[in-house]
Task: inverse folding
């Protein structure tokens, strides 16, 4: 498994856009796969947030995560977030998400970021994120879903 910036493999943007649209984006009637591609293409950074990190296996994209800013509008003081973590179905259960998350944390740390936040629907213990040392802050209802907001000091 190789972990790299999506900016280094921009031909993967349409694949990731389909994943994001299928998983979350279809809920917005004003959204489309094309609009999702456009948004992702606007975040093809390697030296600043926002950016995407992907896991690949030869020519196959296995999964993705995004480092972003101000993901939840109810927390204007919480700047940096890990989000949009997605692993393609054939690669689930192979620690792809774990590897992407760990690499994302290292990347954030290298930028001097001191704290990352995330939201998850794993309400009891944060699932994978709890296992990776993220601490729960609070449960909230946001954008139609009950989520657990977590933080990790880097």
Result:
């Amino acid at each position: 498994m190789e972990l790299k910036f999506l900016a280094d493999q921009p031909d993967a943007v349409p694949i990731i856009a389909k994943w994001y649209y299928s998983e979350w984006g279809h809920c917005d009637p004003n959204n489309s796969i094309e609009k999702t591609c456009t948004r992702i293409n606007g975040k093809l950074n390697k030296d600043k947030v926002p950016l995407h990190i992907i896991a690949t296996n030869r020519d196959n994209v296995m999964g993705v995560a995004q480092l972003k800013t101000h993901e939840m509008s109810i927390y204007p003081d919480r700047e940096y977030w890990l989000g949009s973590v997605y692993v393609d179905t054939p690669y689930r259960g192979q620690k792809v998400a774990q590897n992407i998350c760990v690499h994302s944390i290292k990347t954030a740390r290298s930028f001097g970021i001191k704290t990352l936040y995330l939201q998850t629907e794993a309400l009891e213990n944060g699932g994978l994120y709890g296992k990776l040392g993220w601490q729960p802050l609070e449960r909230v209802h946001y954008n139609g879903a009950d989520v657990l907001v977590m933080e990790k000091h880097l």
Summary: The mean pLDDT is 94. Helices lie at 13-23, 33-41, 96-110, 128-131.
